[in-house]
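We emphasize that the prediction below concerns an isolated chain of 301 residues; any contacts that depend on oligomerization or on bound cofactors are therefore not represented. The input was used exactly as deposited, without trimming of termini.
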Amino acid sequence: MPSLPIGELAGLGTALLWVVSTLAFTTASRRIGATRVNLLRTIGAATVLVVLQLVLAGNPLSAGIEASAWLAASGVIGLAIGDQCLFTAYVLVGPRVGSLLMTLAPGLAAIMAWLAMGESMSGMAVTGLLVTTAGVGWVSASRGSTGVAGAISSRGIALGAAAAACQAGGMLTAKLGMSEGLDPLGALTIRMVAAMAVIVPLAWCVGGGDAGERTMPIRSAWRPLMLGTLAGPVGGVYLSLVAIEHVPLGVATTLMGLVPVLILPVTRLLHKDRISTRAVLGAIIAVAGIALLTAGTRPAT
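Result of the prediction step, given as a token string:
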């Protein structure tokens, strides 16, 4: 009897949970600001993960120095800097375009993994990277994709692209950190604690410099914050580490990159968001590129 494709299922599960966290964090960021959201969800997630580590594992973390360094760097790059860029992009360009920009991450991750770990890219994979980038660019240029300002934001596009690069770098350093056999829960706990150590002073330095208005009290955002924290940095990121543990990095991040496709019907249903033909075609092009990238990415031999 064939075994279940654990890595692929974990990647798909990550995408589903990230749809939930994307919508929840967008709502929270528009109420209290991106920096506050990043700060509060990081503290909340770190607390939950430390408790889970102690309860489930029964002992403190025992990762080696090198593994801990890679995982800490992964937390800073992917969860602190990357998500700060992403939450601000959500405010500026909306959750649909923000999540679509994150489809740049699989190609970037595949290139990084090829350079750092020998996970090769075939001609098909390179074609998939170019097709995905074309789909992202087409939808991002659509005038129908708006954020709080009512028009497409070049700053939001740049921040979304930076978030994709940080996610790719964060996944690569996480995979390097897990190479010694540390379990995904332990790895995620180290990543989140490191991210919290950076986010706390960052939030203090940024102060009132967020994109968007912060006229509402924090209590107005506690429900989407809780939902987003459990779905995103706890459940979703845990499954992402399970995925990169079992399949090549480019394949794992490609499956996680299905968020912009999965989010289209949800935003249509919940927010009555108008989905243009251009948005649908751009999403289809991006997914076609993802399929080519998945088929063309091979593990190192």
